[in-house]
Amino acid sequence: MVDFxxxxxxxxxxxxxxxxxxxxxxxxxxxxxGSVLDVGCGTGxxxxxxxxxxxxxxxxxxxxxxxxxxxxxxxERNINVTFLTRNALDLHPLGMVFDTVIDSGLFHVLNDGxxxxxxxxxxxxxxxxxxxFMLCFSxxxxxxxxxxRVTQRxxxxxxxxxxxxxxxxxxxxxxxxxxxGIHAWLxxxxxx
Length: 192
Description:
alpha/beta; Rossmann fold; 7-stranded mixed β-sheet; 6 helices; 7 strands; about 30% strand
């Protein structure tokens, strides 16, 4: 298992120093609405971008070093985001409900047993008809670099009848190591 806290003492390959283009495009298209939770926010680039666009944003990550970096970025850029060290499998204690939840690279590190727990945890913090946007590694990515690959079926199996899959479409996840990007799935999933 990866020691993410140690990884965040340096610069992980997924920490590209800017928001992922897929989330920039979603925000510009008006798909990201209202209050936003960035789950597995890392050092906060997606959360900071969305907050700068006028949204109330919270970011959570279970890695203290990542949250420390995110808080420092928010102070340096004078952007208001609530960053907290929390476990994505138990979001209910946040005491907040959001209109939108975003996830850049969290889902694909969860094992099969954690995925239903994660979906249930998300349901506790997402308004009815709110939308969860997930960017994760696709099984179309060759080689063994990075986390395990996710199929569309994996995504559909994790989100049962209390959810509606709006779309799962091919996307590119940006990385500092792979200049052509990584084959990914971008999913839009609404709570029913």
